[in-house]
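JOB MANIFEST
job_type = single_chain_structure
chain_count = 1
residues = 115
[input]
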Amino acid sequence: MEREYNDLIGDILKNTGEKDQVKGKGKPLPKGYLERDVYQNFQKIAKDAGYLPEWLKLQKQISEAIHQCQSEEDIKAINEKIMKHNKICPPPMQKNLISLENLAHAKNIWDSSTK
């Protein structure tokens, strides 16, 4: 029987001999694997691999920038980053814009969100 589609990854694995050397092949799945949904499994695998979502990277940058903030220009640049952060993060993680007047409060809020 001839294939009707191109299995590029399968062909590469077959040609390199790695198709039969897959880690964990023939072993049962871990107990916790079936207790979580697909997204939760992805999150765990991504976290274990060291992946950090863009919005979390940006959150850390904003926190560092807030601690170094000294002028209105710094505030403007930070607020632009906050607006970008709010567009890509989950809704409960969105933050308010900052000003020189509420800078001390903003430091506390951003510190608690990066821990």
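[summary]
Helices lie at 8-16, 38-48, 54-68, 72-88, 103-113.
The radius of gyration is 23 Å.
exit_status = 0
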